[in-house]
Amino acid sequence: MEPESKTIRLHALAERAAVCRACALCETRTQVVFGDGNPEAPLMIVGEGPGMNEDATGRPFVGRAGQLLDACLKESGITRKHVYITNVVRCRPTLQEGASIRNRPPSAEEIHACSSWLQQTIEIVQPLVILCLGAPAASAIIHKGFKMTQERGQWFATPFASHAMAAWHPAYILRQHGEVFEAARRDLVHDIEAARLKVIQARREPQTSLFDGVE
Ligand code: SF4
Question: Residue 148 is part of which domain span?
Fold first, then answer.
């Protein structure tokens, strides 16, 4: 596939997603946050959902969690030009607490409603490797009920990519303190580095249709 055609197809998909009203998150979003990065990248990063900054800018991972992700990518020799980044839901899940509005994890229903956009995005990008950030992404890509504490850092074959692994979500790391924070941050750098090396390995493997058997 020509590089331009992936870009054009993703653009067309993003235009359709921009008016999606398949779940209640459309009522509170500022805009749909579709994805960002290089459509030709062999590595896709899938996070949880947009937060306040992402909802405001229309780009994934631009707040504090995004800055931490960028720093960890850089330590692994990777920039956003080397990856395509998206989320399991594309509108910001929020929680009203008094006068303030907070981010919250997406519900199973919201993830299910948005799964078609994620699957179509993966079909276009056809990543060799997917790095899931956090349990919602791992449960959507790898298997339901994914246990981060037990299964993070392990490789799985999935219908979406030959190799998928889960790493700590940067927002989770930011909620930790002291040595726990440092250890989780080191884990993320290590897992990104492992994903980069897995891309090199996957490029040598014969490729089959990623969506064989996916309905
Ligand atoms: S979160 Fe996904 S399914 Fe729900 S309205 Fe936004 S784009 Fe549509």
Answer: 3-202
DSSP state of 208: -
Q: Which two tokens stand for residue 138?
A: 């791992």
Q: Are 90 and 32 in contact (CB under 8 A)?
A: yes
- Cβ(20) – ligand 1 distance below 6 Å: yes
**Count of domains observed in the chain:** 1
Write the CB contacts of 183 (distance below 8 Å, at least 6 apart in sequence): none
Span 16-33, mean pLDDT?
97
Query: Domain for residue 106, yes or no?
Result: yes
CATH label of the domain that carries residue 56: 3.40.470.10
Compute the distance between CA of residue 133 and CA of residue 167 in angstroms, rounded to an integer.
5
> What's the whole-model pTM score?
0.93
Please choose from 110, 118, 120, 121 the residue to mutate so as to test ligand 1's pocket, defined by most ligand atoms within 8 A of CB. Answer: 110
